[in-house]
Design a protein that fits this description.
Elements: E1 10-11, H1 29-45, E2 50-54, H2 68-85, E3 90-95, H3 104-113, E4 121-124, H4 132-146, E5 151-155, H5 180-189, H6 197-204, H7 211-219, E6 225-227, H8 234-247, E7 254-256, H9 271-274, E8 287-288, E9 295-297, H10 322-330
Parallel strand pairs: 1-2, 2-3, 3-4, 4-5, 5-9, 6-7
Antiparallel strand pairs: 8-9
C-alpha cells in the first residue's frame, strides 16, 4: 500500500440497475439513476489513480431499510459501485461506519455481501469523532471476521484528544505503528485544494484574528472533496478536480455520496453526538497508521458545519464556519 499511495485519491460512491428477485423489471428508477451516476463518476476519474471511499453510512444504516428487498437492493448497488470503480489505478474503500455503531461480526457480513473482497478495503469513522486507536482495533476485528486482511482508512479530521471521551495513545504505542518518517510522508503526496471553502475564507478575511490559525492548521492540509447530487454533471465535476490534482502530480481525495434514500426513511438519532458537538478537536494530519496499509485521512473537512446545531448554530450543512473551525483548533467551545 505504501508504494501505491504515491498517487492517492479518495472517492465515495454507489449505483446499480437492480431487479426484484424472480422478476425482470428494474427495482426502481432510483437504482437506474444511481448506476448512471457511478458510471459518470468512473468516467470523470478517467483512469487516474484513486482511492474510493464508498458511500459513508450506507452499510451502517442498512437496518433502517424496512424490508429485505430494499436491503438487498442497497447491497447490490454498493457491489456494482465496487466492481465499476475498483481498477488497477483506483482503490475502493467501502464505508463500514465506526467502532461504536455496528458490531464487527454483523458489519463484516454486510461488507462481504457488498463484495468487499473485490475492494481495496474499508473506511472507518467518516465525519465522526472516535479515537484512532479504537478504530484500528475495530479494523482488526473486521479483518478477523472477514477472514481476510483488508486495508483500511480512518477519518482523523475531528478525532483529536478528548473528542470522543478518550485519548489516542502516542503514535509509537499503536500496536501496528510505523516510523514517523513514513507516517508523515503521506500528506505530501495528497492534493490540497487551493479553492476549498477554508482556503477561500482565508483569502476573503486577511485581517481576521483567526485567519493565520485556520490557514496553517486547516486550509493547508489535504482534505477530501465530497461529490453528490449537488455536484451537477458528475463526470465533469470529478474530471475537473482530478485534473487539477494531476497537474500538480498529487492525488486528490474525493468523496462520492449519492446512494438513494441513505437513511431508508429512518429517523436520525443521537444528533447531539454527531452534529457539531462542543469540545471536539482536530485529529492527526493525514499519515500512514500501520504496516498493513492503514491510512489516517481527513475525509470530513474541518470547519465545515454539520448543520444548524451545536457549535454551528445558524449555519447550513456543509457551510464553512470560522467558529466551528476555531473550536476544532482549540478543542474548546
Amino acid at each position: 500500500m505504501i508504494a501505491a499511495v504515491a498517487f492517492l485519491a479518495i472517492v465515495v460512491v454507489g449505483s446499480l440497475l437492480l431487479v426484484h428477485a424472480g422478476q425482470n423489471q428494474p427495482f426502481s428508477k432510483d437504482e437506474q439513476a444511481y448506476e448512471k451516476w457511478v458510471n459518470g463518476f468512473a468516467t470523470g476519474l478517467g483512469g487516474r489513480p484513486a482511492v474510493v471511499i464508498l458511500e459513508p453510512d450506507a452499510l451502517a444504516l442498512q437496518n433502517n431499510c424496512p424490508d429485505n428487498a430494499q436491503r438487498q437492493a442497497r447491497l447490490q448497488m454498493l457491489s456494482y459501485a465496487v466492481k465499476t470503480l475498483q481498477t488497477k489505478n483506483a482503490q475502493v474503500y467501502l464505508d463500514a461506519g465506526h467502532s461504536n455503531w455496528v458490531p464487527a461480526g454483523q458489519m463484516a457480513r454486510r461488507l462481504q455481501a457488498a463484495d468487499i473482497a473485490q475492494a481495496a478495503g474499508f473506511a472507518l469513522n467518516v465525519a465522526n469523532y472516535d479515537p484512532t486507536n479504537r478504530e484500528i482495533s475495530y479494523a482488526t476485528e473486521l479483518d478477523r471476521d472477514l477472514r481476510m486482511d483488508k486495508r483500511f482508512v480512518v477519518d482523523t479530521s475531528r478525532n483529536g484528544p478528548g473528542s470522543a471521551g478518550g485519548h489516542d495513545p502516542p503514535a509509537g504505542s499503536l500496536s501496528r505503528a510505523r516510523p514517523d518518517a513514513n507516517r508523515n510522508a503521506l500528506a505530501r503526496q495528497l492534493f490540497t485544494d487551493p479553492n476549498s471553502q477554508a482556503a477561500n475564507w482565508v483569502r476573503d478575511n486577511p485581517g481576521d484574528p483567526l485567519t493565520r490559525e485556520i490557514s496553517q492548521r486547516i486550509a493547508n492540509q489535504p482534505t477530501a472533496k465530497w461529490f453528490g447530487p449537488w455536484s451537477g454533471d458528475i463526470s465533469a465535476a470529478v474530471s475537473t478536480y482530478a485534473s487539477a490534482a494531476s497537474k500538480q502530480h498529487k492525488a486528490p481525495v474525493l468523496v462520492a455520496y449519492d446512494i438513494p434514500q441513505l437513511d431508508c426513511s429512518g429517523k436520525a438519532t443521537g444528533s447531539k453526538q454527531w452534529c457539531n458537538p462542543p469540545g471536539r478537536q482536530l485529529g492527526s494530519a493525514p499519515q500512514v497508521l500501520d504496516g498493513g496499509g492503514g491510512l489516517g485521512l481527513w475525509i470530513k473537512a474541518p470547519g465545515e458545519s454539520d448543520g444548524d446545531c451545536g457549535t454551528g448554530v445558524g449555519t447550513r450543512p456543509g457551510e464553512f464556519s470560522p467558529n466551528v473551525a476555531k473550536d476544532l483548533i482549540t478543542g474548546r467551545p
